[in-house]
Amino acid sequence: MNPKYMIIVKEIKEQLTNGQLVAGSKLPSVRQLAETFSCSKNTVLKAYSELEKAHLIYAIPQSGFYIVNDFKRPDNQPDVIDFLSAGPDKQLLPYMDFQHCLNQAIDTYKEELFTYSDQQGLPSLRTEIVKNLQHSQVFTEPERVVIVSGSQQAIHLLTALPFPNGKKNILIEQPTYFGMIESLELNEVTTFGINLSMDGIDLARLEYLFKTSDIKFFYVIPRFHNPLGHSYTNREKKRIIELANQYDVYIVEDDFLGELERDTKADPFFAFDPSGRVIYIQSFSKVFLPGLRIAGVILPNIMMKSFLRYKFSSDFNSPVLSQGALDIYLKSGMYHSHLKKIKEVYFHKIQLLKHACEQFLPQGTHYTKPDTGFYLSIYLPHHLSAKKLALLLSEQQVLVDDTNRMFLDDFNKDNLIRLCISQVPENQIQSGIEKIAQTIKEMDNKKSFRII
């Protein structure tokens, strides 16, 4: 026989399912429900607590309990194994904690919500970001931080922005984040690429490009690279900074997964030249809440005025409510508790993924071996097409990225697929790799699937 509180939980879930309760509906008070079910108030509170844990309801102090969202019946579609989506694990989103911060932000920043706030970002949030970055060996001042609407906005603005070195062209790793390539194409910027593997880049080739190609800045993903999972060593970072100083090239460091770093001795590029040669971007989209659309960018003082002018043409200031809620969340210490949890989850998932690749991938394929992060990539035999593999896998409800959008035209060889583990349940990882391996074998046995 179910405990009384579970009977209450079941009843509310049924009302959600049949549409009696919808998003925003206020639930009966604790006293009303206790009378309805002839139970104690503690029993009702326990039922509401269970529903809160399931993210079905939320509490507003001195007001009551409310429905979070419409409830959907699970459909009968086969389970999708999603190695494609790159947002945070939905089971790790700190909804309830951040809900409290949003409520407090509405009260704390109510005046700013109805006026134009500081274009550079809320001063209190910039101060908290500076404190938070110290854990990543990034030491700077709030005056050098600009709050932007996600790292993509920072990338897009920097791509178009004139730099103090007066140069015009941009260098990117190959492959790299597709959002960077999209901005380069939209802004019609002459772009050079340099091959990246898990062994790093050819530093002699880098020096040649710095010396001869009028490079404004070199865009790098320093840790847990998208799509490879590669991380630079401290020695490589120091050498790249030396070359950047020698040839007057800026470094744009997109450290969007830097907070997943487990090696306490691994530092960002910024740590080796904090004077202004390195422009550092920290996003909260991948390790926290993608819909928050908040990132911080550290700029040299000489670039601040022009960057803010370009940002003004895009949006006068980033959303104040999001800024205020993040400010409160960082101050409370909840952010670091969240990070500690997700670091362990993603590390464990990557280990499971590497083990499955080692066990099941057929001869002739190779895979990258990141320590942690979101991404691992598989190199197919050169005669097989990543596009065709991705299409065949999608028909089996296995989603992967064929990485075509992550290459410049001169570099794309169509033999790389990217796997992202952030939204794949642990119990699907092995079966997903087994399906990928089997499909590769089937393609290899059929001449019609080979690249001619």
Automatic annotation (TrEMBL):
Keyword Transcription among UniProt keywords: yes
Gene3D superfamilies: Aspartate Aminotransferase, domain 1, Type I PLP-dependent aspartate aminotransferase-like (Major domain), Winged helix-like DNA-binding domain superfamily/Winged helix DNA-binding domain
Protein's recorded name: PLP-dependent aminotransferase family protein
Organism for this UniProt entry: Peribacillus psychrosaccharolyticus (Bacillus psychrosaccharolyticus)
Domain HTH gntR-type: from-to ranges: 2-70
Entry's family note: In the C-terminal section; belongs to the class-I pyridoxal-phosphate-dependent aminotransferase family.
UniProt KW keywords: Aminotransferase, DNA-binding, Pyridoxal phosphate, Transcription, Transcription regulation, Transferase
SMART domains, alphabetized: HTH_GNTR
GO function terms (MF aspect): DNA binding; DNA-binding transcription factor activity; pyridoxal phosphate binding; transaminase activity
Cofactor requirements of the protein: pyridoxal 5'-phosphate
